[in-house]
UniProtKB/TrEMBL annotation, chain B:
Protein family (similarity comment): Belongs to the APC10 family.
One cellular component term from this protein's GO annotations in UniProt: anaphase-promoting complex
UniProt xrefs under SUPFAM superfamilies: Galactose-binding domain-like
Any GO BP: cell division
Name under which the protein is recorded: Anaphase-promoting complex subunit 10
Protein's organism: Elaeis guineensis var. tenera
UniProt KW keywords: Cell cycle, Cell division, Mitosis, Ubl conjugation pathway
Transmembrane intervals: none
Function recorded in the entry: Component of the anaphase promoting complex/cyclosome (APC/C), a cell cycle-regulated E3 ubiquitin-protein ligase complex that controls progression through mitosis and the G1 phase of the cell cycle.
Annotated CDD domains: APC10
Record-annotated DOC domain positions: 6-192
Length: 679, 192
């Protein structure tokens, strides 16, 4: 809703600077978001840290810290002390939670239905409401009405309710994992968000969660957090999702949940933990229509629920399993709860640790290390949409487009309705010049959610690939309009303006991108390119260096930095960087070419020729390589070779501009010969 | 074959126009940000009709020959191709038959670079702006002027339905002397 200031004052009344932030961790999280969006980074970091301290399972806070570049090691955040704290929290509430879980779950659907399109005016109010509600919902008892929301009444409030119930597991980590509600939903869905006739079954797994005891408070917080996040972030998405899925929902109108379940997180280990992992976090309000389960669309249910099953695609089976397990567990008695709780928490935190570390490294653009961390995950955790997307993204940052393509493709297969990370995938396809795949991706994304920035980014990339820059600009502007806090949309828009040689608008776009996210190295890069074109070399170098500082492993960035240095005549440094770029990525021909360029301008022709010979082997049909060789031979006055290479270059059909340059160079070759003849 | 030396009578040197606009991929329309003006026009058929991407609207001149269309760019640009849409079947005596293309820095120093003749053209007429010299694939200029010297059937005024001007695309990699054409290079040449 963008009423950030009101939200801020509500959460943190100006005249009471030391008042405790309402609703503890979630409140801090919200405040952190507010500060982030208004540009006050240190305050934001502070609040996120506090949020994490109070509730170590608040993955959202950790994620934001990563994005801001200020996260500590995941093992610090998700360590044993945290486990202990979580345990304490859960234990204190476990007693009253049994029944409430059930009710909460139901209320979730109802509230979600209500809440989905809802615009919560005052986050704070809701937060408070949430707190009180949590206690109220307890007495609700085991009235499981899957298809019939008990707390359908007060929209705002109930919406806060359900989430708690639903977020069975400190869906913290899971949320990111399951940004695609669908996927996880299934897993969780297995837990019972199916049609009404499965009431009892649904009940069972829920209770299991209660046993684990992690839910309430955490979920409550998460919910409020997700609720507010929804409003402060991509509220449009939620509405869109629910709307789009509404049509899919057959009879289960009420059961619209906008939630992100962490199906993927279901740990493979003990049964006790499985429940823990089934948490649904309402993140971006992606609705999980029950139908979807029923339609079996979510084929990827990485919900290794209770019965140690491997990924099961049918929610029913998961449900059934959950039920058995549940009953099993109930049989064990309460005394076992605590130990299970403890071990469950530990397992869960272990998982969070790995994911957190991976995410953190990925945000710090230490992509190689991030990849290693992700590889440590177990097979089915790895094969979840979120993780695969993150791996794809890491490869993208390393400029390894083929691998990125592979992983994103897998991610899409695994969870076809994921939107997060798909903008990066569209860029990967753009670079690989895969027109078909890119247009297909764009169409699919639009059909999943017309109001998501990623879908419009993909469309824009499509047009950009066809060199229709004006339409691309329109599409990117739509993406910006849909979500102005989506930095990448701004950057892509800037790229298109620059392609149209409209530098002013391009710079504006890049700057808006940077306002949203200072660590968005693509925007720094874009600004560098603009200044390079405008021959403001100092500026160009400064911007490239900033981009390089943020993402030190991209060979293309290093190359551009080298080019800027060369333009500033700092050739030694330029050559150094080129060497680095070459060693960073063997498949990238650009730094070799640029190195040859620099060397030839320094008149170190032999070395230049050596590089070009190597390049020739690598890309034998690249006319610019031959053209440059021809140029060098011309400088060396070896006319036959020059003519030879110019000839090859022309044969490879370069664009007209090059043809003109090469031909004129060839013309000039004749003159000295003629002079010799006449002499 | 009819006498080729005399370019007036035979159709060998004359352009007739084609149904489709065929432009190379490595060219782009250059004159979106240019200033367009005409020597004269009939009210309702002004210069806008030349740029509105609508083949039904046309510019009609309203004065003495030669009729001029002036295109002034904000900076010196490389131009490669001029394309006109004219239609003899609809416009008959209003269809231009001889056109002179001039370029320069401004009105004061325009120099003719090309003259072309049309023979009952219907459709898009592509006029490359290069000279015979292969080095001159482009002309590098601030201003272009299109002068309609005469019309078919000795008509006084002229109709032109659309004009487009094309030039080379800028190199996506700045300060690079040559363009990359192979996929291996293009993939890595920029970041997005």
């Amino acid at each position: 809703m963008n009423l950030l200031r009101e939200a801020e004052t509500a959460l943190c009344p100006a005249n009471e600077p030391n008042a405790e932030v309402p609703n503890g961790a979630a409140g801090h999280y919200l405040l952190g978001l507010i500060y982030r969006y208004t540009g006050r980074r240190t305050c934001a970091v502070d609040h996120f840290m506090q949020a994490l301290a109070i509730d170590p399972l608040l993955w959202a806070a950790y994620e934001e810290l990563c994005i801001l570049g200020a996260a500590e090691e995941a093992s610090e955040c998700f360590n044993d002390a945290a486990a202990f704290r979580v345990q304490q929290q859960q234990l204190s509430e476990s007693s009253s939670q049994n029944l409430t879980i059930g009710t909460e779950c139901q209320s979730l659907p109802s509230s979600m239905a209500l809440g989905s399109g809802d615009t919560s005016p005052r986050h704070s109010k809701q937060l408070h409401a949430n707190n009180t509600r949590e206690t109220l919902s307890h007495p609700h008892g085991t009235v499981m009405v899957a298809g019939h929301p008990p707390i359908g009444g007060p929209s705002n409030i109930s919406q806060y309710y359900t989430p708690p119930a639903v977020t069975q597991l400190s869906g913290v980590a899971p949320p990111p994992l399951c940004r695609n509600a669908q996927l996880y939903l299934n897993a969780i869905g297995g837990d019972g968000y199916t049609k009404s006739n499965v009431n009892a079954v649904i009940q069972a797994p829920r209770r299991k969660f209660v046993d684990e005891g992690k839910l309430r408070k955490v979920s409550g917080r998460l919910f409020s957090d997700s609720g507010t996040r929804r409003s402060t972030r991509l509220s449009g998405e939620a509405a869109a999702n629910t709307n789009s899925n509404a049509s899919q929902l057959g009879g289960n109108g009420a059961n619209h949940f906008s939630a992100k379940s962490l199906g993927g997180l279901s740990s493979s280990s003990s049964k006790t933990n499985s429940a823990v992992l089934r948490s649904v976090t309402l993140r971006r309000g992606q609705s999980w229509a029950n139908e979807n389960f029923d339609e079996g669309r979510r084929s990827q249910i990485f919900y290794d629920s209770c019965a140690d099953n491997t990924v099961t695609t049918s929610s029913m089976s998961a449900l059934a399993d959950g039920k058995c397990l549940e009953q099993d567990k109930m049989g064990c008695g309460i005394s076992a709860h605590d130990s299970r709780l403890a071990s469950g928490i530990r397992e869960f935190l272990g998982l969070l640790r790995t994911l957190g570390e991976g995410y953190r490294l990925s945000c710090l653009y230490r992509s190689q290390e991030a990849l290693e961390v992700y590889l440590r995950l177990s097979q089915h955790q790895f094969n979840t949409g979120w993780v695969l997307s993150q791996v794809g993204k890491a490869h993208f940052e390393l400029v390894d487009y083929f691998e990125a393509d592979r992983f994103f493709d897998l991610a899409r297969r695994v969870s076809p309705y994921t939107l997060e990370g798909m903008d990066i995938y569209s860029t990967v396809l753009y670079h690989l010049e895969e027109e078909m795949k890119l247009s297909y991706l764009a169409q699919e994304l639009i059909s999943v959610d017309r109001l998501s920035p990623q879908a419009w980014c993909a469309m824009g990339n499509c047009y950009s690939l066809q060199k229709d820059h004006e339409t691309a600009v329109k599409n990117f502007q739509r993406a910006v309009h849909v979500d102005s806090r989506f930095a990448y949309a701004h950057t892509l828009c800037g790229h298109e303006y620059v392609a149209l040689e409209d530098f002013e608008n391009g710079i504006k776009c890049y700057q808006s991108a940077l306002q949203v996210d200072e660590r968005h190295y693509n925007a720094w890069y874009g600004l560098g390119v603009v200044y390079l074109r405008q021959e403001k070399f100092e500026f160009a170098e400064h911007h490239f260096r900033k981009a390089f500082h943020i993402n030190p492993c991209s060979s293309v960035l290093m190359c551009y930095l080298g080019m800027a240095l060369h333009s500033l005549k700092r050739d030694e440094e330029a050559l150094e960087i080129m060497e680095k770029a070459i060693s960073a990525d063997k498949k990238n021909p650009l730094p070799m070419y640029q190195k040859a360029n620099i060397l030839s301008s320094l008149e170190r022709f032999d070395e230049a020729l050596k590089e070009l010979e190597q390049l020739k082997e690598y890309a034998p049909r690249e006319s610019s390589v031959y053209a440059l060789m021809g140029k060098i031979y011309k400088r060396l006055n070896v006319h036959e070779k020059a003519m030879f290479y110019f000839g090859i270059a022309l044969d490879l059909k370069p664009p007209a501009a090059d043809v003109a340059t090469i031909k004129s160079a060839m013309e000039k070759l004749y003159l000295p010969d003629e002079l010799e003849d006449t002499l | 074959m009819a006498t080729e030396s005399d370019g007036e009578e035979d159709t060998a040197g004359k352009l007739t126009g084609s149904q489709h606009l065929e432009v190379d991929d490595d060219l782009r329309e250059m004159a979106k940000k240019a200033a367009w003006s005409v020597s004269s026009c009939k009210p309702g058929n002004g210069v806008l009709a030349l740029r509105d991407d609508n083949l039904d609207t046309y510019w009609q001149s309203d004065g003495a020959q030669p009729h001029l269309v002036n295109i002034q760019f904000q900076k010196k640009v490389k131009l490669q191709l001029l394309v006109l849409y004219v239609d003899f079947k609809l416009d008959e005596s209003y269809t231009p038959s001889k056109i002179s293309i001039r370029a320069g820095d401004g009105f004061h120093n325009l120099k003719e670079i090309k003259t072309v003749e049309f023979k009952k053209p219907v459709g898009w007429v592509h006029i490359p702006l290069s000279g015979t010299d292969p080095r001159e694939t482009f002309i590098h200029t601030f201003m272009l002027q299109l002068a309609v010297l005469s019309n078919h059937l000795n008509g006084r005024d002229t109709h032109v339905r659309q004009i487009k001007i094309y030039g080379p695309r800028p190199n996506p990699v700045p300060h690079q002397p040559f363009h990359f054409i192979s996929k291996e290079f293009i993939t890595y040449s920029t970041l997005k």
